[in-house]
Design brief:
Order of helices and strands: HHHHHHH
CATH superfamily of the largest domain: Uncharacterised protein YqeY/AIM41, N-terminal domain
Oligomer: single chain
Distance between the termini: 43 Å
Number of helices: 7
Largest sheet: none
Helix content: over 70%
Number of strands: 0
Number of domains: 2
CATH topology of the largest domain: Hypothetical Protein Yqey, Chain: A, domain1
CATH class of the largest domain: Mainly Alpha
Radius of gyration: 18 Å
Structural class: mainly alpha
């Protein structure tokens, strides 16, 4: 079942179970996807966004909520931080399982080998391969630093 169908099924289930907090988060996910669909159609893509773009949307939503939760915690608003963290849990249900540190290192090594990267100038190509294969499974901020370290080392 594709992500859209899973989200829609979860919306229906949350309605049946009268889970208002979960329902509002699921509706936010749907709204974000539909928003991107509309933008894609305006650019001439009649089919809307694909599965990889939906994963990207969900990843951005998680990242935004992590930043908000951190800000709320720093400001002493633990109730709001807790709300953001619960939304993260709901959104992450639709993301693929995150890779472990060892799996990320192996994925980076494979991507470096795939593009034949030899220097830091090849970092963009390596990151492109990682984003194509592991969207939603890797924190690309941390992976970028690892790729940079890997490419900076002499062979």
């Amino acid at each position: 079942m594709d992500l859209r169908a899973r989200v829609n099924a979860a919306v229906k289930q949350a309605m049946k179970n009268k889970e208002s907090d979960r329902l509002s988060t699921l509706r936010l996910i749907n709204a974000a996807i539909k928003d991107r669909d509309i933008a894609a159609r305006a650019d001439g893509n009649e089919e809307g966004v694909n599965e990889a773009e939906v994963l990207s949307i969900l990843g951005k939503m998680v990242k935004q909520r992590r930043e908000s939760a951190k800000t709320y915690e720093e400001g002493g608003r633990l109730d709001l931080a807790e709300s953001e963290l619960s939304e993260i849990g709901i959104i992450e249900e639709f993301l693929p399982k995150a890779l472990s540190a060892d799996e990320v290192a192996a994925a980076i090594d494979a991507a470096v080998a795939e593009v034949g990267a030899e220097s830091i100038r090849d970092m963009g190509r390596v990151m492109g391969v990682l984003k194509a294969k592991y969207t939603g499974q890797i924190d690309f901020g941390a992976a970028g630093a690892q790729v940079k370290d890997r490419l900076s080392q002499p062979a």
